[in-house]
Each structure stands twice: as structure tokens, then as C-alpha cells.
Amino acid sequence: MRSLLILLSLLVTSPAFAADSLDLAPLKKWITRQSDVRTVQADFTQTRSFKALKDPLASPGHIYFSAPQSFRWEVGNPAKTVVLRKGDSAYLIQPTKKRAQRLAAAELGQPGGTNSLPMMNFPLAKNFEDFNRQFQVQAISVEGTHCHVELQPRDQQTQKFLDVLKMDFDTATGYLIAFEVRTRDGSMMRNDFSNVRFNAKLDAGVFDYDLTGYEVVDAKN
Amino acid sequence: MFHLPRVWKIAAGAALLACVVLGFSRISFNVDILRLLPTGLRQVQGLSRFLKYFSQPDELIVTVEAPDAQAAEKAADEIAAKLGGMTGEVKRAVARPPWEKNPAQLTELLAFLAINQPPADVQSLVARVSPEQAKATLQATLEKLSDSVSPQEIGLLSYDPYDLAGPLAATALASGAQQSEFASADGTFHLIYVQAAKPFDNYQDAGKWIEQIHRATAPWQGRNGCKLGFTGEPAFVASISSSMQSDMQSSGIVTLLIIALIFWVCYRRGWPLLELQGMLLLIFVLTLAIAGLFFDQLTVIGVGCAAIMIGLCVDYGYFIYQRSQRHTGSLRELQTQCLSYIVWTAGTTAAAFFALNVSSLPGLSQLGNLVGIGVIVGAVVMLTVFAPLTLRRHQRVGGHTASGVERLVTSEGFNRVGAWLTLAMVAGFLGTLAVKGLPKTDFSAKPLQPRRSEAYTALDRISEKLLNGEGEPLSLVVEGDSVETVRARLVAAETQLAAAQKRGEIRSFRTALMLWPNAANQQANLPVLRSLVEHLPRLKQSVLDAGFTAEAFTLTENVLRQIAAWSDKPAPIWPDNDASRWILRRLAKQADGKWHALGFAQPVAGREEALDQAVTGEGIYLTGWPLLTTELRHVIPREFAGAMIGIAVVVLGLLALAFREVRALAIFVGATALVFVCLLGAMSLLGLKWNVFNLAALLLLLGTGTDYSILLLLALRRNHGDVSAARREISLVVCLCACSASAGFGTISWANHAGLASLGQTCALGLLIDAAISVFLIPPAWAWLHRQLSGDGFR
Hints:
- The complex is a heterodimer.
- Chain A is mainly beta.
- Chain A has one domain (15-218): Lipoprotein localisation LolA/LolB/LppX (outer membrane lipoprotein receptor (LolB), chain A, Clam), CATH 2.50.20.
- Chain A has four helices and twelve strands; from the N terminus they run ααββββββαββαββββ.
- In chain A, a hairpin with a 2-residue loop joins strand 4 and strand 5 (89-94).
- In chain B, strand 9 (588-591) and strand 10 (594-603) form a beta hairpin.
- In chain B, strands 7, 8, 9, 10 and 11 form a five-stranded antiparallel sheet that branches. Chain B has a four-stranded antiparallel sheet with strand order 3-4-2-5, sandwiched between helices. A two-stranded parallel ribbon of chain B has the order 1-6.
- Chain B is 65% helix and 8% strand.
- By secondary structure, chain B is of the alpha+beta class.
């Protein structure tokens, strides 16, 4: 039913086709480099623009990652939404509502997932084969050390909603600069990253969250 | 004996002809496999309702599979367009949800869901859009749009700023609807639903229509690696019916040919062979016509009757032919001599087949009745028609000279070698039993299905690709006299399902409850929601003031206008536009004066049995093959065991009267027990499994196979224990009978219906074992036992 309701707001357009030959070397190098990353912390500004909204909505946020599977994503200042993953457990926490949803950790950020966005799949892929299995590269361009990549998810259900994923990174530092999701109805969600730090020591408690007094429920997938 | 005045003969012939015409005109095939199963079982009742009310008899499903998603999608769209253009044959061909081209069609469904929800939720909605709270509601929506991490929530809220659909989307039905009924997640597998322009009159009609679809779609088969499959009700009906017809024809014809070959090898006489074949055809026609008077539809199991009855009835022909060769008296004397033998064998055989009626499997009961009738008809035809013919021919041709085969069968050497080989066979089967154990059992749905079926192959592929290999879900069928009764039962069923989910017995479930009208809620909500139409200008202005575009308000406006349009309609209200009808066609149905609703539950593997009792109640059926096979596993063996004991008691009682001595009875019991043990060993050796159909072989062997030992024992008694004389009298006939009956059962071993084929294999195997033990081991056993008991004994 939910998928039916969503279709109310979506129009289907013909799928784009991949460019014939692309130089994927910078992308492969960047993905390979991700395997050396043990921790990540960064600030970001999330901008969401909708066809049904006159002006875009912007919110600040932070991201923390520690290999192999610890992850914290929070939006708002103070945080209004926190997505937290530690090992096999994951939660979607709404501090203002004192509410938390237990998520299926393995499905976090996966294409077609109902409780998370594609940018929460961090790192994006284990290796290039894994990346290639999930995405088709539509375009890639490099200007100086700035690489811009446009992707289409291979999952057909996801393709019905998502038109294109855009990603910008620095080929010299390996830092992610921006991540953008465009949906088929013309809406857009973009994260511009700043203060990116690799392999810096993280506060041990950053991946813990005290849920005392919270209503904790299982998310419906 | 059997002499009637001419006028009576003509009258009887005319009556018979009328019966034949009437009987044949009534017969048709029924491919419903549930017709083969006990109708008293709750699982069968549930599955029958599911198929009756929710299968789509005129809808063919075309599957399109390609190496990549784009090729599959393109082919599916092209095929749908091509088929949709065949206006004379196809009503519609759908490769995408009807609302995908026109999402606005779902507005009606959303309006329906809105009026159907609890009045308290509607009050909450009315409060959300009130002049006091509208601004705060829109602000909350903007915050959600800014913070939410759910793509669905983000996608919907921007077009639903007052969150009309939010509470509805969070319901149980929404949680289980991620799978598509049109394409697999990877997009390489697509389905096209093709509805015939008009209902089919019969299976030939369906077959011709499917042929047209095959031809129309042929250009896409193999193009860009595309593979097409065809399934759905018309495909099942056409393919199973035609395979039933071909099974019946081919097994009957092959049996006739084998019988002809056996007869020719033994007797090398042309005319008697033709006469015998003519008798068998007559028996078949008469039996089918008589059966047509009682059964209007033949099941897939019933079609096996042709080969079996031919294989059995020819026994009486052999017997009469063999006796007539030496007969020097009148026809009446020949008929009287043959009568006692034929009554014995036909009586026990018919009794065994009629005993299949104690089984609650209607398919087997039908097979039993058909063969039982056939055997009686066969005995009458052979005695009254074949006996005069064959005697007249013998009297004209002259004295009997034993054929080479007859001399061989009665020779000492042949019987000695045969006895040793039979002993070796017995030892081999007993050894196999000791090493490999008893044959395994298979009470799954497999024996109920055809062995080769394009429709089943395509269905399996759908299950694999669209259900993500999770296995077939269980179906929940809820029925009641009124919409409200069904709704109350759906609520009860959902409560039970939720409890089962908590106990870890099912992974997920969804029912039609969400889409089932709640008349009370609708009556309470309609006036409240209709009043909101008057506030549309204010609501729209608030949306614009909050920063949304005019487009963001379209859905809200359309939903409220749809609700206003329903305000004069009496409850219960059903949504009825194209999109709603498409969704409801598999969820709700009014037929036979009742309402029916559907649901699904995905069981946790190995926990299905617990569900049978956990989800139950008046008009509530949780059904599926796993539950059915569990029920069958309990019921069928118990039934057959009871029938076996019953038949064994009757046969032993009759034989006690006939033999009037314990020794003959002991030999009979010993030989029969040995046959069954050897059959178990042979099945174990060949990897054959017991299922609900071939369990009947035990009953049939008790009725049919035992004829051989009875004939041998009767001949031994008639000849005062003279083994050679008894062998001269009966060995050849028993060999011929066993070969013919095995041929009859053997030819259905290749039947397309797996259960029928397994019954044929098991019976053919059992009969051959039975014949070998009867012919080669009973005479020496008789002689040895009599020597032991009487000192000198008979020769």
C-alpha cells in the first residue's frame, strides 16, 4: 500500500543510459582508498528541495564513522534526527519526540530500503565490484582534484523513485565533498561536507546513545 | 444360460446404445487437483475457496525474463502493447500497475481509506486542519521534510502537507506491500496479465486461445536473450486437460498393443486376437458410458481407468480362450465352468477397487468405481459375447495343440529356473530392505501435480523471482454472509495472526482488512470529512502561505472532493475505479451469496503445523500446501490401513469358505505377505516413494494380485495337488494375466500426472512380483507342505 501511495506523487520517466566509455580510474582509486579509512568525522549541510515547495530546506548535521560498522548520522542543531549503528544494532532516534525505532542494520542505506537514505550506506561500497553491483556510472568528470560522478542505482524498485545520485570527492585527499540524490519527481537532497577528517581519534561514546525514557519500537520494513 | 428372446435383445441393445450416448455426452475433464483430495478436510475446503473465488479463470500470465532489466522491461511493454491490440481475443494486457500511467487514479482509494478509518483518527485529522492548528500542522510537515530519513515519507509528504495519508501508510497493509506483482526487484523478470476477451467454454477453447497468444508473442521468444513463460488458470486448464486426454488415449492404445503382442506370441491366431481386442474396446466404451451416467467429470486420476481396466478385463478373455481350446461340450457348459473362476477373480478385483471408496480421496474413489464397473462389465462381456465367439471358432477350426509358449511355461525346466530366479529376486529385495530400509514417504503437493507442465514451471519461476525464494505464502480466506460479518472475521483472523507472529510462527502477514469497508466508520466519517470541502480555499491558502506550491495541495483537494461525491451513497462504500478494481480483484469477492476476503501469511519454515490450529474460526481458512500435506500425512495412511484391514478380513473369510483348509490359507497368507515385503524392497531399491496415491497400490494388490495365488491354489485343489496338471491348467493364464495387467498399470507409469504415474509404477511392480511368487513358489510350497503334513503327500 505504501508503495502505491508513493506512486501518487511520482511520474515515471524513461531510464537514462550509461555513457559508452568512461574513465573510471579516479573512482576506482577513491574506492580503493576508502579501505584505508578507519575513522571519519565531518560536518555537513543538508539541502532538500521539492517540486511542491517554493524554497529549499537546509539543516546542519554531523557524521561519524568508525570501521568496520559504527556509524552516526545526525541532522539538526540540536539534533532532530539521529541514525546510529553499532555492529548489528541500528536505531533511528528522534530526540525531540523521545522516540526511537530499531532498524534492520544490514538494510541501512541499501537501495530500496524504507527507513534510510542511500547516503547512509557508509562506506558506499567495500570495493569497486561491490560498487559496480549497486550502481551504474552515468558520467564522470575531473577538474583539478575535484571529481564529479553521476550514478544510477541498478535496483529496479529504487530506480522508480530515484533518478540519479551525484557524488563529488577530492582525488588528492579522498574526502567526500558532496552527495546528492535526485528523485524522479524533480526533488533533490544534497549534503555538502566540510571539516572532513580521516583516521582521527573519535570519542568512544559517540556511537552510544542513552535511550532511557524513550519509546523504542521496531521499524516496519 | 444367457439366452434371451430376440425382441428383448433388440430392446436391451437399444437401451444400451441410449445409455452409451447419454453417458458419453455427460463426460468432461476436471483438472482441479483439489478434486482429487478429501473434501472433508478443512485445508481442502480453504484451498477450494481460494481457487474458486480468487483464481482468475480468464487471465493468462505471461512471464518475460531477460539477462538485463532494460531488455525485460522493453519486451514486456512491447508484448503488452501487441496483445492489447488483439481486440477480438484480448480484453486487456497489463504490464504495469494501472495507476502508474495515471497516479491520480489512486486518489479514490486514498479517499476510501480516509472514510474507513476510526472516527477518532478522523477527528484528529479535522483538528489538524482546523484554523487553529493548520499552521502548526504544516510547520510539522516542513520539519519532517527536512529531517526524515525515510524516502517514502519524504516522497509523499511534499504532496500531502496535511498528512492525510500518513496514518494510513503506517498500517499493517502498508508494511507488507514492498513486493511488486509486475516485476522482480532486479527488473530482469516481468509479468504481463492478459485477460481473454470472453470466458472460455471449455479447455479446448482455452487451448486455442493460448495458442494464439503463443503465436503473437513468438517474435520476442529468444530476442535479446528473452525467455517467455505462460501460466495462470487458462494455461493450467488447457495443458492439464490435453495431457489427461493424451494420457488416457496413449495408455489405452499401448495397453491394447501390448496385449495383442502377448496374445500373438502365445497363440499366433489372428481372428481371436481381433475379437479379443474388439471385446476390450467394447468394455471400455460401455464402462465409460455407464460411468458417464454417474460422474459428469473425469479427474486426472480417473483417466487412468482405461489402461487398468483393459489390463484386468483381458484376464477373463485369456481364461475363456484357454478353456475353450480344450472344451468339447456346449457353450452353456463352458460358461458355467468359467463362471466360478471369473466370479472369484472379478469379484475380489471389483471389491478391492470399490473399496477405494472408503478413501476420502475423491480421485481414487472415482478410479476405483470406474475400474470396478469396468471389471464387472468386462466379466459379463467376456462370458456372454466373447465365450460364444471363441468356442464357435475352436469348434470350427478343430482340436487344440499347445503353443510353444504354453509348453515352455508348463515345462519342469522353466519352472525350476523360474523358482530359483524368484528366490534370488526375493533374497535381493529382502537384502535391499535390510540395507536401505523402508521406502521413503512424500506427502508433499508434488504427486498432485503434472510432471511436465509449462504452466507450473512458469509459476515456480514467479515464486522464485517475486517472492525472493521465501517460499509460497499461506492464503487466508475469510467468508461470511455480509460485509460486516467478513470484517469481524478479518479482525479476529488478524488478531490470531499477530499472536502467531509474536510466537515466531509467521514472519509477516497482510489481509484485506485495511481495504474492507467499515460501514459504521464510513457513516460516522462521511459527514465530518465532507464538511472539510467548504474549507478548501482556507486550507489551500494556508498551504501556500507555509511555502508550498499549489501543486502540493492537489491531492488533498481531490481526496476531499471524492469524499464529498460519496456523501449520498449508502454505506458500505467500495472504491470502484480501474485502479481500485485492479487492487481489489484478488482481495475481495462477492459470489454464491457470500462475501470473501483474502490475505497472506509468510510462515516460518518448520512452524507451519502449529498454524493450522492457531488461525481458525467460523469462516476463517488459513490454507496452503504445507498445511494440507501435514493434514494428508495424518489422514491418508490411517484411512488406507483401515481399508486394508477390512479387505484382508473379507478376502480371508471368503477364501476360508472356498479352501476349507488352513494349509491353503496359510500358503495364501504367506505368499501375500512375501509379495508386500518384496514390493517394499523393490521400491526401496528403485527409489520410489509412498505418496497419497500409490498407497492405494496396497489395496489394489490385495484385490488384484492375490487373484494369481488364488487361481493357483484353486487349480492345485481341483487337480488334487498335482502340480504339473495345475500348471498346465493355469500357469499360462496367470502369466498372461500378470503381463497384461502389468502392461495396463505400466503404461500409466508414463502419465503426466505424477500421482497417477506413481500408482501405475507401484502396481505394475507389485503385480509382476505377485505373479512370479504365485507361479514359481506356490506350487512347490504346496507340494512341500503337503508332504510334510501327510507323510507321503500328493504328487
